[in-house]
């Protein structure tokens, strides 16, 4: 948390329409470097749509999504880049990417944004280790001389592959799956699959990691482990986190900053403590029924 | 046409034998009636073209046979295999091969390689056997090539024969227009086929599943129709003849003083070329095998398999689906092209007739029957299918019929092919097989 | 203009036949998501059944054309339905819910079986019959030639329109249609709600086969020649039609069929008949590049 006010992602007036349905409506918010930003809201609020826009799976109808590498100084070039037809600007150890202009794979490969999915998407028939190797594709591809060197068994590729395996091992130890490294990913228990998906995303070396409901379906122990893992990533890696979550205990415990969506609009934005006492948020979650508001207040203050 | 497994009531619970018998009988009777309906008129009355027009010939004895066979066959099956609860054809499969990776798989692999290496010199090997071996190896190579596209990348390609044709025609045309030799043309055929793989790949990038299947099928047909009709260039239906044979490091397999036999002081024999061709395709097949095994362990191969497993996850990890698909198409096509060039030089004559849809279906069947993604399975399937197919050559009329029935039966028997487990490309401690039920089949 | 009209009529006739076959593909695909590769060969078998029925009627002396046609149609539909039903039972049902490519290979095997079976029992030679219908209507007398629509062309187009209407009604209004649509959505759920999924799927094959039999009979009457191989080409074209129209959609199959028929007729009429198949497939590829789910197919929303 060296730069507490250092912005990494700036979303401006993001709008996504599907036919007549407005899933995301003029949304603007910022995520800060080295922090965990949570995106919460009731079902159907448009959270996953925001993720899909950020990670390039959807082309937003309107709006700008700028991501800075290095420091937030890069945002000084936002207008200049927006006016040009290019996708990115870079210089002096900094870079700026306009995510809405980039193809989904480039969002990961170039802008270094990784993500996980609400309904876990592992390569089920490949082993746990292989899953982590796929995530290091670009590194290995370069080392294999775009396949040609690798095909003739060049030592350079063998070194790189060993390094990639080491790195994967490091992550597997971290998520307690080292003993299952050679098992197919589909054979893992649900909670293990969730952690593996996070590790896989981390292996692609992201500056921003987007997690879509990482705690969904986890039991309390697993949920606590997940919190540790995410806090560990925040502490030890050069990665900022953006997460969608329903589990308030996770949100309140680990996030530095919470953005609340309802019907595609932002209704609240601030520190967890601020957000959880915001009447608009309580109303959005539970309608305006007083008893239920009390109930949720009791829950969030636990 | 008798197999309809897993339905008789006997499968529910073991009933009293008398009831069992009655049921089996009733079921067989029903099948016989169905057979009567199916075969009665179509088999019993044969249309014959006479100068005066069509007439009907009566062949009721054939119907009687067919219905009788159905009745008896069904009755016997009901009383034997399907009698036990849950009795399935699958029980007949040797357990060792089902697992594969155990010693059985390795042993079969070693035996196959040993036989392949020594085939021309095995006692009792005649020209026929070497020719058959050459044919089988051609299909092994095609199967391995297609396996990259279908088995690894999970893209359903029904027009693979197009690349086989591109390779064959590339060599034939380069040889006849530019007087290039086989060895010079081989890489060119590979590159041209790769190129056509990309040409086909581009339009179908966005297509999935069966849409992809039909467009690749269409592409195969387009290539064939063009070859058939562009007579000035390709010779049309007459094809291209007198395609030069490959030389052995510059030595021709001819009778003259500068021929292969004379150089090595051997007596001239037409077998030399046959054996040489056999080893050429053996080497080509080995190269295909080695390259595909290597590729699987490289990032590109892992990207193919990852794409088969989950395209969206791939995109989220920075893998370009365009690049991944096109490389799979291109490399798969390239091997098809190599096999095609070999086919052209071996036959010395090619025409569009050799590149019909049935070839594509055959190669795909080899891949699927073998077990997608498995090198050994594909090799076994090619040996069984092509070898078996040739074995029945005497029953010319019936062999395609039997061949089709085999395709249906083997699929019903083992839908995931002979060797269905997947070997991981990298491991920490031990290489554990991934069971077939985990492995995705791809959506492309 | 005259030439154009004539090609239009020819194209519509051809397209009607493709459309009738395409419905069989599209229904089966809609309900179990597989390419019934043997469908074209069921069409071919039905054409042979029609031919035999026709010869039998001739032999026993029933020559009144309308009566003969009805009898031939009924017989061909019956035989074809039996084949459709059996093919599903033998080659597809054991593989339902299995590995995706297995039914496809099994279907290709079935297609080979049917082709060679007919080749063996009926001979490989082309069978030709005398034209049954000779009349027609001259629509316009041109200088070079007359624009004509023959009786059989009228019959084919009218039959197709009637069958399409009946068919759309069956799918939209009857309980069978509802069962089919529910199986398309979710077979497990349909089964839980008391729908006999096996029976519904069987009936879908039977209906597709019956329509193919109509197409087979019409083909026989229109061209007057059949052989054991017609199923492959007609099948591939009809499947192309189904995909072009958007597989799974009944109106799409018909539209696709008509388009393929028209493309073929016009290409053959104006350019070259050798490359008409290339034109058909090329247009298919082009349409799919821009509309990856066909003309009337539901656009696939990518779920992330």
From TrEMBL, chain A:
Signal peptide stretch? none
Q: Where is the ABC transporter domain?
A: 9-288
Q: Which SMART domains match?
A: AAA (SM00382)
Q: Name one GO biological process term.
A: L-isoleucine import across plasma membrane
Q: Is Acetylation one of the keywords UniProt gives this record?
A: no
Mention one GO molecular function.
Answer: L-valine transmembrane transporter activity
Q: Which UniProt keywords apply?
A: Amino-acid transport, ATP-binding, Nucleotide-binding, Transport
What cellular component terms from Gene Ontology apply here?
A: plasma membrane
Which PROSITE patterns does this entry report, sorted A to Z? ABC_TRANSPORTER_1, ABC_TRANSPORTER_2
The UniProt family comment states:
Belongs to the ABC transporter superfamily.
Name this polypeptide is given:
ABC transporter ATP-binding protein
Organism this protein belongs to: Salinarimonas ramus
From TrEMBL, chain B:
InterPro entries xref list = ABC_transp_permease, LivHM_N, LivM-like
**Domain called High-affinity branched-chain amino acid transport system permease LivHM N-terminal: residue spans:** 24-117
GO molecular function list: branched-chain amino acid transmembrane transporter activity
Compartments in which it is found: Cell membrane
Q: Which UniProt keywords apply?
A: Cell membrane, Membrane, Transmembrane, Transmembrane helix
The cross-references to Pfam families, in alphabetical order and at most eight, read: BPD_transp_2, DUF3382
Q: Membrane topology type, per the record?
A: Multi-pass membrane protein
Q: Name the domain of life this protein comes from.
A: Bacteria
- Its transmembrane ranges are 24-42, 63-82, 102-122, 134-160, 180-204, 211-230, 274-293, 326-349, 361-386, 398-415
Q: Could you state one GO cellular component term attached to this entry?
A: plasma membrane
Q: What protein does this entry describe? A: Branched-chain amino acid ABC transporter permease
Automatic annotation (TrEMBL), chain C:
Set out the biological process GO terms recorded for this chain's protein: D-alanine transmembrane transport; L-alanine transport; L-isoleucine import across plasma membrane
* Membrane-topology annotation of the record: Multi-pass membrane protein
**Which cellular compartments is it found in?**
Cell membrane
Q: What is its main location?
A: membrane
Q: Which GO terms describe its molecular function?
A: L-isoleucine transmembrane transporter activity; L-leucine transmembrane transporter activity; L-phenylalanine transmembrane transporter activity; L-valine transmembrane transporter activity
| One Pfam family here | BPD_transp_2
The record ties this protein, via CDD domains, to: TM_PBP1_LivH_like (cd06582)
- Annotated GO CC locations: plasma membrane
UniProt KW Transport keyword = yes
Q: Which residues cross the membrane?
A: 12-35, 42-62, 68-87, 99-118, 152-172, 201-222, 254-272, 278-297
Domain of life of the organism encoding this protein: Bacteria
**Keywords of this protein's UniProt record, alphabetized?**
Amino-acid transport, Cell inner membrane, Cell membrane, Membrane, Transmembrane, Transmembrane helix, Transport
Q: Which family does it belong to?
A: Belongs to the binding-protein-dependent transport system permease family. LivHM subfamily.
Q: Report what the protein is called.
A: Branched-chain amino acid ABC transporter permease
Origin species: Salinarimonas ramus
Q: What is the lineage of its organism?
A: Bacteria, Pseudomonadati, Pseudomonadota, Alphaproteobacteria, Hyphomicrobiales
């Amino acid at each position: 948390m060296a730069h507490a006010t250092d912005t990494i992602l700036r979303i401006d007036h993001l709008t996504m329409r599907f036919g007549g349905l407005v899933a995301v409506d003029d949304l603007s918010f910022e995520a800060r470097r080295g922090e965990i930003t949570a995106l919460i809201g009731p079902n159907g609020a448009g959270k996953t749509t925001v993720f899909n826009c950020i990670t390039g799976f959807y082309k937003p109808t309107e709006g700008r999504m700028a991501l800075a590498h290095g420091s937030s100084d890069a945002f000084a070039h936002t207008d200049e880049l927006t006016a040009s037809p290019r996708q990115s600007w870079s210089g002096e150890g900094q870079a700026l990417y306009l995510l809405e202009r980039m193809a989904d794979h480039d969002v990961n490969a170039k802008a270094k944004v990784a993500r996980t999915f609400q309904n876990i998407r592992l390569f089920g028939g490949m082993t746990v280790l292989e899953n982590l190797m796929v995530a290091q594709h670009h590194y290995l591809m370069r080392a294999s001389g775009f396949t040609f060197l690798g095909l003739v068994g060049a030592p350079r590729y063998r070194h790189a592959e060993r390094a990639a395996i080491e790195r994967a091992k490091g992550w597997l130890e971290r998520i307690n799956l080292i003993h299952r490294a050679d098992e197919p990913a589909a054979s893992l228990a649900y909670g293990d699959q969730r952690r593996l998906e996070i590790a896989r995303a981390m292996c692609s070396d992201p500056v921003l990691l987007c997690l879509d409901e990482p705690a969904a379906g986890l039991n309390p122990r697993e949920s606590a482990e997940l919190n540790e893992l995410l806090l560990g990533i925040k502490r030890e890696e050069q990665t900022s986190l953006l997460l969608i979550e329903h589990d308030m205990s996770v949100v309140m415990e680990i996030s530095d900053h919470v953005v609340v969506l309802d019907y595609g609009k932002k209704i609240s934005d601030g520190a967890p403590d601020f957000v959880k006492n915001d009447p608009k948020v309580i109303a959005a979650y539970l309608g305006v029924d007083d008893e239920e508001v009390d109930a949720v207040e009791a829950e969030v203050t636990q | 046409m008798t197999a309809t497994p897993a339905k008789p009531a006997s499968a529910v619970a073991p009933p009293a034998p008398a009831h069992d018998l009655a049921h089996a009988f009733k079921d067989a009777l029903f099948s016989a009636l169905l057979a009567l309906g199916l075969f009665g008129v179509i088999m019993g009355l044969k249309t014959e073209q006479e100068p005066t027009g069509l007439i009907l010939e009566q062949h009721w004895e054939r119907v009687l046979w067919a219905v009788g066979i159905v009745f008896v066959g069904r009755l016997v099956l009901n009383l034997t295999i399907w009698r036990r609860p849950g009795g399935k054809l699958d029980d007949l499969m040797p357990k060792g091969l089902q697992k594969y990776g155990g010693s059985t798989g390795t042993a079969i692999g070693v035996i196959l390689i040993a036989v392949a290496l020594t085939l021309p010199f095995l006692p009792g090997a005649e020209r026929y056997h070497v020719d058959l071996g050459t044919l089988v190896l051609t299909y092994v190579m095609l199967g391995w090539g297609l396996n990259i596209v279908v088995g690894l990348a999970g893209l359903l390609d029904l027009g693979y024969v197009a690349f086989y044709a591109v390779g064959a025609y590339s060599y034939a045309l380069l040889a006849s227009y530019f007087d290039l030799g086989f060895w010079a043309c081989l890489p060119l055929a590979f590159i041209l086929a790769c190129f056509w793989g990309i040409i086909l790949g581009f339009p179908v990038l966005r297509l999935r599943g069966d849409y992809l299947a039909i467009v690749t099928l269409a592409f195969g047909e387009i290539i064939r129709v063009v070859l058939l009709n562009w007579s000035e260039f390709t010779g049309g239906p007459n094809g291209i003849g007198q395609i030069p044979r490959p030389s052995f490091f510059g030595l021709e397999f001819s009778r003259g003083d500068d021929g292969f036999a004379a150089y090595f002081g051997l007596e001239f024999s037409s077998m030399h070329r046959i054996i040489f061709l056999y080893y050429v395709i053996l080497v080509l097949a080995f190269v295909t095998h080695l390259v595909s095994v290597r590729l699987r362990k490289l990032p590109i191969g892992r990207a193919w398999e990852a794409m088969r497993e989950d395209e969206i996850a791939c995109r989220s990890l920075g893998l370009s689906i365009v690049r991944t698909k096109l490389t799979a198409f291109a490399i798969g096509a390239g091997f098809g092209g190599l096999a095609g060039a070999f086919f052209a030089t071996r036959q010395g004559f090619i025409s569009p007739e050799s590149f019909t849809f049935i070839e594509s279906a055959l190669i795909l069947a080899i891949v699927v029957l073998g077990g997608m993604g498995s090198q050994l399975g594909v090799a076994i399937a090619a040996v069984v299918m092509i070898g078996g197919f040739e074995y029945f050559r005497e029953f010319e009329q019936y062999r395609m019929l039997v061949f089709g029935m085999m395709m249906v039966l083997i699929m019903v028997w083992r839908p995931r092919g002979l060797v269905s487990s997947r070997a991981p490309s990298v491991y920490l401690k031990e290489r554990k097989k991934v069971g077939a039920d985990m492995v995705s089949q791809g959506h492309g | 203009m005259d030439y154009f009209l004539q090609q239009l009529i020819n194209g519509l006739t051809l397209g009607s036949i493709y459309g009738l076959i395409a419905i069989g593909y599209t229904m089966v695909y809609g309900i179990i998501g597989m390419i019934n590769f043997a469908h074209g060969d069921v069409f071919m078998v039905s054409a042979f059944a029609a031919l035999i029925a026709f010869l039998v009627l001739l032999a026993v002396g029933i020559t009144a054309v309308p009566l003969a046609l009805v009898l031939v149609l009924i017989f061909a539909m019956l035989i074809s339905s039996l084949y459709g039903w059996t093919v599903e039972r033998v080659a597809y049902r054991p593989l339902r819910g299995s590995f995706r490519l297995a039914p496809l290979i099994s279907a290709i095997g079935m297609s080979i079986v049917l082709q060679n079976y007919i080749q063996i029992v009926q001979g490989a030679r082309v069978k030709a019959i005398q034209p049954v219908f000779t009349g027609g209507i001259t629509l316009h007398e041109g200088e070079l030639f007359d624009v004509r629509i023959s009786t059989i062309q009228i019959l084919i187009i009218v039959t197709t329109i009637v069958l399409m209407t009946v068919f759309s009604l069956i799918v939209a209004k009857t309980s069978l249609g509802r069962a089919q649509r529910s199986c398309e959505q979710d077979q497990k759920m349909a089964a839980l709600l008391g729908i006999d999924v096996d029976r519904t799927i069987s009936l879908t094959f039977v209906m597709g086969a019956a329509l193919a039999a109509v197409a087979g009979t019409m083909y026989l009457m229109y061209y007057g020649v059949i052989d054991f191989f017609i199923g492959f080409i007609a099948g591939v074209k009809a499947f192309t039609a189904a995909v072009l129209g958007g597989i799974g959609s009944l109106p799409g199959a018909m539209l696709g069929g008509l388009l393929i028929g028209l493309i073929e007729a016009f290409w053959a009429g104006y350019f070259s008949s050798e490359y008409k198949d290339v034109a058909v497939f090329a247009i298919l590829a082009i349409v799919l590049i821009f509309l990856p789910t066909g003309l009337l197919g539901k656009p696939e929303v990518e779920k992330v």
